[in-house]
Structures are given as structure tokens and as C-alpha cells.
Design goal:
single chain, 107 residues, mainly beta, 5-stranded antiparallel sheet, 10 strands, globular
Amino acid sequence: MDKHNINDFVRGWFVGNFEPSLYKTEDVEVAVQYFKQGDKEASHCHKIATELTLIVSGKARMKDKILNVGDIVKIAPGEFTDFEALEDTITTVVKLPGATNDKYLEI
């Protein structure tokens, strides 16, 4: 058994086709991300990948939808979304396929 810590990975991404990664694959990407209240991510989409985001703790807003603990959003390819932590928030994100370099900012 190898022991690791989420802080050893870039922005919480620990499975996918990047370094460092616990399991290197192009099939899927997985992250556990920690946000402080007020943290934001710019609106973006993926042309290939579907993204699933679970709110583990806290409260967030994505494209004018308020998300609470236990809420899961499915973001289809080509669908733009942003993110704002309304409280300190933890998310689990799954992106499939991994689709390296598949992030496009909304202009």
C-alpha cells in the first residue's frame, strides 16, 4: 500500500493523464478540491468530456444554480459553466473521458 495526501496533487486532481497522478489514464480524471468562500473559476466548457461535480461540503453556485451538500451536477460536452464557492466548499469531480487539453474558456 502506498500512502499519499491530496495536497501532493495539483488542485486535487489525483487520477488522470497528468503528473503527478496516482493512476495515469486518459479514460477518466478524478479530483477532490477544496475551495475557500469567494473562490471562483471562470466559465468554461469541455468539447469532449462530460464532467460530474458532487458537493461534499459547503455551498456553491454554478451557472446561477445554488448547490448544497449532496447535490451533483452533470455538465455535458459543449455546456459552459462557472463556479463560485459561497462557503468553504469541498467537491469531488469526475471528468470522462480524461481528454487532455479539453478546456475552453467562455469568451
